Amino acid sequence: MSLSKLNSLYREVILDHADHPHHKHALTDATTTMTVKNPTCGDVINLDIDLNEDDVITNIGFTGEGCTISQSSASMMSDAVLGKTKDEALKMAKTFSDMVMGKQHDQADLDELDDAAILSSIVSFPARIKCATLSWWALQRALLSNQQEESDGEA
Amino acid sequence: MKTDISDLRGDFPILDQLVNDEPLTYLDNAATAQKPNQVVAALTHFYQTDNANVHRGVHTLAERATAAYEDARHKVTHFINAAEPAEVIFTKGATDSLNLIASTYGEANIEAGDEIVISIMEHHSNLIPWQQLALRKHATLKYIELTPTGELDMADAETKITDKTKIVAVAHASNVMGTVNPIAALTKLAHQHGAIMVCDGAQAVPHMPVDVQALDVDFYAFSGHKMMAPTGIGVLYGKRDLLAAMPPYQFGGEMINFVHRYESTWNELPWKFEAGTQNIAGAVGLGAAIDYLENLGMSNVQAHEQQLVNSLLPQLTADHQIEVYGPHDPARHTGVIAFNIKGLHPHDVATALDMEGVAVRAGHHCAQPLMETLGLVATARASLYIYNTQDDVDRLIHALNETKEFFSHELIKAE
Q1: CB contact under 8 A, A42 and B403
Q2: B355 touches chain A (CB under 8 A)
Q3: Sign of the four-CA dihedral B146, B151, B154, B157
Q4: Which of A45, A98, B28, B150 is the most exposed place for a label (fewest CB within 10 A)?
Q5: In the CATH hierarchy, which top-level class contains the domain A9-154?
Q6: If contacts are CB pairs under 8 Å, which of residues 11-30 in chain B contact chain A?
Q7: pLDDT < 70 positions in chain B
Q8: Domain Aminotransferase class V spans what residues (chain B) (predicted)?
C-alpha cells in the first residue's frame, strides 16, 4: 500500500499536535498580532505574542483553520519559542525555514526546535512546505513588524 | 469517429506513467487538460515549417503563418457557431477575455449608480474585473445567490436584475459546484432589462456543445488550455455591433489602421483587439484541439463524462464520511465534483491521494466568495475529461477509502 509513505510525514507527534494543538487560543491585549494566509489553499493563521521589555516571548497563542501540517506546525512552533528572546526566536525561524528547504544545519540548532524538528520530513512533500512554514512565517513577520515599529518610534 | 476510449488514451502519452509508484489517475482537468499528440504535432509542425509573423510581409512563410492563424479563427467560429470570424478575438485566456470586456465595454458604458450583476459561484476571473469596475465607476455590484441544492437561484436572478442593470456576467458551468447555469434564460432576462450578457465558458466549451447564437449572449469567454490546446491562448466572442463600438483594449502594432503624429485609427475587427504579435502557435494548437474534439463529437464527449459522473457521484454522496458540494443528482452535475472527507483538511486528502497516483485539486478554486458562502475554507475537487475511464473512477474511490483508513483516528474525532 503506497500510503505507507505517508507515515514519514504524518508521524504520531504531528498527529497529536494537530488533534490537541497547544496554545490554540487568542491572547487579550497581545503586544504583537499578525495574520498570514496561505494563498494556495486559503488557510489562515492569526498569531498573538506578548513580548516583555527584555524582548522575551512571555505568552503566545494562535487561532485559525488549517490542515494537519499547518495546525501541528503552529502548535510545535508555539511550544518551541515560548520563553525565548526575539533574536533567539528569529534564529529558530531561520533554522526551520532552512530545514524544510533541505539545507544542512547544525544539530544544536535543530535541537533548539524541539518537536518542530520532526517536520524535516516535509522535504519529501514539496507541495506541503508552505503548510509547515505558515506559522513560522507569521512569527517572523510579527517579530520584525514589532522591531519596525520600535525603530520608527526611535527615529 | 473514435469511440474506444482505450484507443484514445494512446494519444496522451503523459497519462501512461507511474506517479509515486502507482498508475497516474489525472483528475485535475478543471485546472488544465492534457494535450493529445495531435496538438503537440501541430505546434511542432508550425514551428518547423511555417513559423513567421502574421499579417506582415509578403514572403511565403508569412503567408502560410497568416493562413494557419486565420484558419484557427475559422475553426473557433464554427466550433461555437459565431456568426463570422470577425466576432472571434484571440486572447491569452478566459481571464484576459473577461478583463478585456470590463476594460473596454465596461469602462465606456458603466456610470455611477448603474448595476452589474454576477453570481456568487463565479471564479475570481469573472468576479474581480467587475468588482474593480464597479469600484472605479461607483456602480453597484450585485450577486445572484444559490438554491439549497447549490444551483443558481433564478428567482433571485429575477429580483437582482433590474432596469438599472447594465451588465450580467455568469459562468456557463461552475468550476466548483459542477452545475450548468441556464444562460439562455439569464440572457433573455438581461436583455428584457436592457443589460448585456457576458458568459464565462471556461468550464463549458471543453465539455459540451456550445452555440453562442442560440444562447444569444453578447460576450462569451473561454481558455484553450482546458480543452487540450496550449496555455496562453483563449477566445473572446462578441457580437459585431458591440465590438465595433468598443474602444481598443491595448495599443501597438497590428491593431492600427493609420498612425499619425497626434492621432491614430484602428484596424478592422477582430484585429482591433489584437495588439502586438499574438500567440500564433497557440492559436494553431487551439485549431488542432478543436479538430480533435470535433472528430470525437462534443455530444459524445459530454455523454462519456456523464457516464463517469453517473458512477462516481452516487458513490461519493452515499458515503456518510464524505460531503459533496453542489447538486447530488448526477443528471444535474458536470464532471467537476467538489467534496471533503469530514474531519480532514483537503490538503491532507490531496497529499494522500497523490501517494496513490491520483491527482486532484485542493483549495479554494479561485472562488473565495463562494467558499465563504458555503462556510468552507477549502475543498478537494476531482474533475473528469474525455480520456478518463471507469478505472480512474475506481482508483479514486479506492484511494479515498485508503485515505479514510490512514487518518481513521482523525475521522473518529470528527464523528
Answers
A1: no
A2: yes
A3: positive
A4: A98
A5: alpha beta
A6: 20-22
A7: 1-6, 409-415
A8: 25-396
Contact between A3 and B355 using a beta-carbon 8 Å cutoff: yes
pLDDT band for A7, please (50, 70, 90 cuts): confident
- Examine the residue annotation and report whether B199 is marked as an active-site residue of this protein: no
Task: Say how far apart CA B154 and CA B149 lie, in whole Å.
Answer: 13
Strand, coil or helix: what is A42? coil
Least Cα separation, residue B407 to chain A (angstroms): 9
Among candidates B352, B356, B364 on the partner chain, residue whose Cβ is nearest the Cβ of A42: B364
pLDDT at A26: 96
pLDDT per position as a tens digit, A39-62: 777 788 999 999 999 999 999 999
Contacts of residue A138, defined as CB under 8 A and 6 or more positions apart, other chains included, come to A34, A35, A36, A45, A46, A47, A62, A74
Query: Cβ contacts (< 8 Å) between B406 and chain A: which residues?
Result: 3, 6, 10
Among A63, A31, A83, A32, residue whose Cα is nearest residue A135: A63
pLDDT in tens, B89-108: 999 999 999 999 999 999 99
Q: Which CATH number fits domain B5-31+297-414: 3.90.550.10, 1.20.1440.20, 3.90.1150.10, 1.10.10.10?
A: 3.90.1150.10
Size of interface A-B (CB pairs under 8 A): 67
Residue spans per domain, chain A:
9-154
Partner-chain contact B345 A19, CB within 8 Å: no
Chain A touched by B402 (CB under 8 Å): yes
Distance CA B112, CA A77 (A): 50
Pick the CATH number of B40-294 from 3.40.190.10, 2.60.120.200, 3.40.640.10, 3.40.50.720: 3.40.640.10
pTM of the model: 0.91
